[in-house]
Amino acid sequence: MSEHDRSQLGAYALGALEPDEVREMDEHLATCPECRAELAELEEMKEFLGEVPPEAFLDGPPADGDLLLQRTLRQVRTAPEPQKKQRSRWLWIAAALVLIAGALGGGVLIGRQTVDQVAEPPAGSRQVSTTDAVTGTTMDTTVEPRAGWSWIQVHLTGLTAGAECEMLVTDKSGKTWGAGSWVVSEKAARDGSYFGGGVLVPLDQVRSVEIRTVQGKHVVTTAL
């Protein structure tokens, strides 16, 4: 994947790209599982940053933000094997966040959009809400169409802090796809947990979205 594509992931996650750039990124993500995984991590990072008090950003982005970006990019390029593959993903994410923070002049404040504000889903998206009668967990699910694949965003209430959850998507042929996993923070358990992931399934072929623990315990399922 090119350095240009990586630098665009953060802007894509924040909805800051132009329509033609979004289409180009959609096409790339349809063929790149690594970037889909990084996109899911960016969404998780946004939720984490949303827990930072807004007072921390009253002074705007750090004066040495450009130096921080350069240092981060240098770490990515010079990271030795075998650490490079494992470290580079998070370093690229950090670089993207620094880059966008500088461009928008708002520091990490941009990350608060995930927790306090939910972006309007694109045209053609499907939204379903359901509550599991056994676990009591409620899940609001939004499935957004992409170029040959789908992005699934969920908001769950009723989860337990520390729970290790995973999102599974089943298509109409019966095949189940993994769309990522996360650990529920105390804040997410209290206020609701947001998570997003992509799968190579067109929107009209998505049958259901399930959340379960990594230990295999069912939490909630939404049928579409």
From TrEMBL:
Matches recorded under PANTHER family? ANTI-SIGMA-K FACTOR RSKA
Highest taxon of source: Bacteria
What is this protein's record name?
Putative zinc finger protein
Query: Where, per UniProt, does this protein localize?
Result: Membrane
| Species of the source | Kribbella antiqua
Molecular function (GO) terms listed? Answer: sigma factor antagonist activity
Q: Please, one GO biological process term?
A: regulation of translation
Q: Outline the extent of the Putative zinc-finger domain.
A: 6-36
What GO cellular-component annotations does this UniProt entry give?
membrane
Pfam families xref list: zf-HC2
Regions crossing the membrane = 90-111
Question: What keywords does the record list, in alphabetical order?
Answer: Membrane, Transcription, Transcription regulation, Transmembrane, Transmembrane helix
Q: How does it sit in the membrane?
A: Single-pass membrane protein
InterPro entries, A to Z = Anti-sigma-K/W_factor, Anti_sigma_zinc_sf, Znf_put
